[in-house]
Amino acid sequence: MKKFLMIIFTGLIVFSLTGLSFGEDLRIDGSTTVLPIAQKAAEVYMKKHADTRIFVSGSGSGTGIKALIDGTTHIATSSREAKDKEVASGKAKGITLTGHKVALDGIIPVVHISMKINDITMEQLRDVYNGKIKSWKELGGPNRPISVVSRDTSSGTYEVWEEKVLKGDKVRADALLVASNGQAVQTIAQNKFAIGYIGIGYIDKSVKILKVNGKSASPASVRDGSWPVARPLFMYTNGKPTGVIGKFIHFMMSAEGQKVVNEVKYVSIQ
């Protein structure tokens, strides 16, 4: 009896360390940008596959990739490509990070709905975020300090913004760092003098979208590359996906999966 209990206990330890269940359970974790896509896709997929349970969470791109490497998720969602050090870390543990481009996104600067500014240049965005521009007056707005809202450094959205907008500069020291797109929207909606950036799928009427260099963000401008802060969105697996993981990735790449991408206001790759 004691031996039997020991076997069960050991099995539970292994189960808790892997974080993965058996059968047709599927765990997806990572980018908060990709989260709405993953959630809706999981909902649609489970309606067609009653024997599959999908658990979706959004802890950030870097955290999701680490979870895939550590074996605590089946699919890692990411709003950026895996870094060289992440690829190397995976190889050291026998994990081959394989990216599947499932959608496109535009990162959009947004302000409070009352702000009397409609357009901003890439150079102005850079100077707002690096601290050279400190007042809305310098942008044609009121003589009030700009409250800068940024994503935290574990965010793939932050890393793309840092690359394409800041171009190597550091975000000003007094910027408010938030953990998700949703939190960024809420923060800006409550602060008349705030500016932030969010994925195109998180745009709603509570914040005001800014044009960049006179260009409006749209599925067309994201797809053709004319929107200056556009990027692909990924789902990462360990090597070529098989079983339920492969079936879900195949669904994401299908016409039905790409329809889900458009339904949640992101840009399909087809």
Overview in brief:
Helices cover 39% and strands 23% of the residues. The chain has 10 helices and 11 strands.
- Count the beta strands: 11
What is the rounded Rg? 21 Å
Name of the top-level CATH class of the largest domain: Alpha Beta
Based on helices, strands and strand pairing, what is the structural class? alpha/beta
Tell me which CATH architecture of the largest domain applies here.
3-Layer(aba) Sandwich
Characterize the biggest β-sheet: 9 strands, mixed
Number of domains: 2
Gross morphology is: globular
Global mean pLDDT: 91
Calculate the terminal CA-CA distance, rounded to whole Å. Answer: 59 Å
Q: CATH superfamily assignment of the largest domain?
A: Periplasmic binding protein-like II
- Number of separate helices: 10
Q: How much strand?
A: 15-25%
Q: Element order, helices and strands?
A: HEHEHEHEEHEHEHEEEHEHH
Report on this model:
The strands form 2 sheets. Strands 1, 2, 3, 4, 6, 7, 8, 9 and 11 form a 9-stranded mixed β-sheet that branches. The protein has helices spanning 2-18, 35-48, 61-70, 84-92, 122-130, 156-166, 181-189, 219-223, 243-253, 255-263; strands at residues 25-30, 53-57, 75-78, 97-112, 119-120, 147-151, 176-178, 194-199, 207-209, 211-212, 230-238. 39% of the residues lie in helices and 23% in strands. Helix 9 (243-253) packs across helix 10. It folds into 2 domains: 2-104 and 232-263, D-Maltodextrin-Binding Protein, domain 2; 106-223, Periplasmic binding protein-like II (D-Maltodextrin-Binding Protein, domain 2, 3-Layer(aba) Sandwich). It has 270 residues and is of the alpha/beta class.
